[in-house]
């Protein structure tokens, strides 16, 4: 019995010593590996999956547990406001960069958008010529086309009744009372009655309960300001109309492009609703004022519309080709982050896998590119795909970003 107890004590002691040795060996190896790696790399360490995790020594990522990897041997050259992304992290984020170049463009194509609008030079207001009550309204809605001389309404007007009475009384003795007769005729002409319409009143040979109001100009009604039963005053506007035999093509343009455009410059207008119909014309107006909220200006061209197929409100695009001689710096439009007041890009450091946010001044769009006035130099490398991913990582790391500037 004592022998058995002695054997068990020996076996237990051997197991405990073996376990202690098994534990000690890996630790010793780990310490050796750590010492070797640390000796090889004295820079910063980061997680390839979580680049916001940065350490001054080797270790594991507190988020995913992966081993941290070396970032750079040149940590003294790292911008403290820059976000560090290892090659693996950049690959995982599908980042793509573009090296800034200086290019000479011989032709610049501007693509603009806008709408067709009524030609305001052809707007016309119809006025009442006497005071009275509208007894009958021939026009009941906007959009109706009127020809000059068409009936608009009939009005009960005491002044017209009195003048008609004079006209009928003087007409038989017009040769003897020529001055009085001509004075009455002039009253009707002042009220925009033509000679033919005055003769029709004479042929009536009786007073009317209401008198016609005729259109003074052809056009499409844009606003109707009276209803049956309304009492209107002399010189009151009763409707507005516009001649649509010509329309305006009005286009928006970025403020930086305004100085490149001038009246008389050729432009090609494309109307999508008419099967992308193209009309070549010239710019006849460049707005001298800029919309301060949108930072855009406006240009205009006049289009003939004899067959009335061009409808105000139609969406249009336009192409303007401009000859260029200057060399320009340009970058992909996708590289730019817009904050409202600033245009920002992420620039990659040539010394380390770091990306810094930088403000740039853009000039104007050319198709899917923007020309750069300042903020970048030839040869610098910028992010043009995955820009928002970089910015999100910068925000998480507390670095300079769109939100934190």
Topology, element by element:
Blueprint (H helix, E strand, L loop, with lengths): L1 H39 L3 E3 L7 E2 L13 E4 L10 E2 L2 H6 L3 E4 L1 E4 L2 E12 L4 E5 L4 E6 L7 E2 L4 E6 L1 H13 L7 H13 L4 H10 L6 E4 L4 E6 L6 E2 L4 E6 L3 E9 L11 E6 L5 E6 L2 E2 L9 E9 L10 E9 L3 E6 L4 E2 L4 E6 L5 E13 L2 E6 L6 E5 L1 H10 L9
Antiparallel strand pairs: 1-2, 1-3, 4-25, 5-27, 6-22, 7-16, 7-21, 8-15, 9-11, 9-14, 10-13, 11-12, 13-15, 16-20, 17-18, 17-21, 19-20, 22-26, 23-24, 24-25, 24-27, 25-26
Written account of the structure:
The two termini are 81 Å apart. The strands form five sheets. Strands 4, 5, 6, 22, 23, 24, 25, 26 and 27 form a nine-stranded antiparallel β-sheet that branches. A seven-stranded antiparallel β-sheet has the order 18-17-21-7-16-20-19, with no helix packed on it. A four-stranded antiparallel β-sheet has the order 8-15-13-10, with no helix packed on it. The longest helix has 39 residues. Helix 3 runs antiparallel to helix 4. It has four domains: 40 residues; 89 residues, conserved putative lor/sdh protein from methanococcus maripaludis s2 fold, CATH 2.40.420.20; 90 residues, Efflux pump adaptor protein, beta barrel domain (Elongation Factor Tu (Ef-tu), domain 3, Beta Barrel); 120 residues, Beta Barrel (OB fold (Dihydrolipoamide Acetyltransferase, E2P)), CATH 2.40.50.100. It is elongated and about 120 Å long. Strand 23 and strand 24 form a beta hairpin. The chain is of the alpha+beta class and 405 residues long. The chain has six helices and 27 strands.
